[in-house]
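Input protein
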Amino acid sequence: MSGAEHDGPIDGLTLSVHPSVVFRLGEEMIQDDVQALVELAKNAYDADSATARISVDTQIVTTADGGEVTDPDANGAELLRGAISVIDRGTGMSREQIVQAWLTVSGSPKRELKRRNGMTEKGRTPVGDKGLGRLGTQRLGRVVDLYTVVQGSGVAHRLSIPWDQYESAERLDSVRFKLTSESAPLNAHGTTLTIRGLRDLGHWRGDALRDLERRLSAMISPFGKRGFSLTLNVDGQPIDLLERPTAVRSNAMLRYELNYKDQVLMVHGSATQDYFRPDRGGADKRATFDRAMAQDGGAAFLAWLLDRKADQVQSFTLHASDDHFVRFSGRFPLMDIDGVAREDGVPVDPGPFAGEVDMVRLRDDVPDVFNSARDYSTFVKEINGVRIYRDGFGIPISKDWLDLASRWSSGASFYNLRPENIIGFIDLTAAGNPALEETSSREQFRDTLAYRSFLAIMERWRRFTESVQTFLRRSFNEYLAEFTAASVGGEVEPSPTVLIEHTEQQRAQVDKLLSSLDQTRKTVEQALETAQGRELESEESLFPGDREQLAQAADQLRQFLGTINHLSADIDGMRKSYERQRDALVVIREQFDTVQAQLAEAWETVALGLTAEALSHEVSQVVDRLRQRTQGLLRRLKSPVDELTVRTYAEHVMSATSALTRQIAHLNPALRYRRERRQAVTMSTFLAEVSEHFASRWANLGYDIRMSVGVVEDFVVDISPGRLSQVLDNLILNSEYWINQSRHSGSVLVSIERPFLAIADSGPGIDPNLEGLIFEPFISSKRGDGRGLGLFIVRQLLEPEGATIELSPARGDDGRRREFHIEFSRLTTEQPSGD
């Protein structure tokens, strides 16, 4: 063995860090140049400065020790080109703070202050707590110079870090630098960081400068001052970070203001006339819009809306506005928001926040601060989406964290927010939202209960936007149809049959006109014949003037006759055109009737599908129990089996198959060959069968729900039992869902009183914000579970039968409506036998 292997122990060893780690930390923790600047701005905020001034000079040339080179064309490896200065007027750093904190990688006293829920002297909660901001400077340049003064100290401290030396150093502590101190004015305070020898001068010039502006607007809130401002100057040119975002927001046609505090979300919205202006469909649609809205400022539409859509208007507390055309609002308590996280049964509060979201146009009305429409659309594309800021600094999470793109492409509603043309912000604070924690990479939030509640609150806001936008746009389309029809003297909703009748009336008028022209032609021909006869007789007259007058009269009659013939030909062409239009309308009517029949059948099929979907869950449970019992019996068959075991199993099989038969039989009335048959249905008898079915269903599923049917005055209706069954299934399954959501036992109450059927339940009732919209398609408060079609389908199924359904205006003790009334006045026949 060699002697080296017998050397004694070495004491006092420590871990050392290779210099490359410093660069890797800076690259991994700081995404890019823009985030490096933002981290430095955060340090200014944490130092209680009112501003952070960033100046970029791509022309300056300096030496390694900081001396300025006057010849811009000078060359040399030691020369450093370009510089960035970040200047604040904050608290500054003392000598001890520089040595013990600023020069310690990832050392951050601010983190400890934040952990203790402490604040700065100005009441700020630190936002830059990673202690890695200064490492980001190595991404920007080759040398960083620190100059800092604590207010009232009269002493300034200087320090330079040569980042390039770490590339060749073997150990982190082998690179040495010197901290110096000098006198400073007593009123001086703050810190200046100067990064020299910019690694890529092209990042700060030309088109890249616009990109820098856009990206800074995404990282540092451009939505107004929050007690801290940032200014940017590049090569002597000031860059206003607020000007362009403000111009985009001033172009908003739809705006939402959100304010969540004291466990209540308040949403105030507004829409301009421009929101209703079509951006597709060409000149015809825009001309119709101008006639319907621009002439009276939309006053007629507003009057129509307030009169014809009173329930929906009340749901949204919608009213006219002098500055935004219409305003609306919604109020959503945290305890009523579906999907909110709970801890020990109590909703988890994510803390107060506020925000604003604007919808802007991308094609028209480009603000003057943009060079072109392309410049405008490019800028909007860069800052679009709903950004989240904490104390004014952006959290670089996904732009579409609200998942608007997939909702738009899924087509649940044509009037959803479009991700490409909305810009907005949510303002969080470190003090108010400490439970909304970011990951170490700052690219997303941790999956905490508070974050889940925050997402649920924002989802409730999103569903509110979908409801109000769908209501406004559909209402306007309905108004336009009435306006257009009224302007031409037609019916509001002309059917093909009405159009055929109108065409035939027009053709009849043309026929009358042709007949009248034919009579006129004959009269003119007779007059011309008379004039020509007299003209011949006048040739022997002694008065030449008579001959000339007769000749002129004959010429005029010939011209008149020619005009009549041309008009007759044109009008005959119109008559033939009306005939062709009528023939085309007859074909359209046949196609229209076919489509209507197919659509009615489609809604019936969808309704049947919803019913079958609910029943399939129950049937699968029956089958599962049967399979488990069979497997158990097979295991026992390996040993002697007594007769009682087999008999018990057989009885269970009989019971299970009976249950399956009952559930499948419930679908029979909805099958097409049964659905098309109308017959006399006694309401009490029918409801008894429905009640029995749901009692069996709830027993099998273990639901503690009871259904009771009260008869005040029974009646008989002439209706398709299949359709009636589908209607009741949709309503009762809806009640079942909400009762189960409450996690309490519940009841469904049905009352029969000729000619009405009233259905209510003990669930939470209708969301007040949806009262006027529940019969519209794709409107649902079932987060993630609902299609928003159930009540819409119910109305579609009842209308062809001549029945109607409405939400009762009666409210419970909690102020919510929960009872539906179905009226069968047009379908009632005789009283049930025995009454």
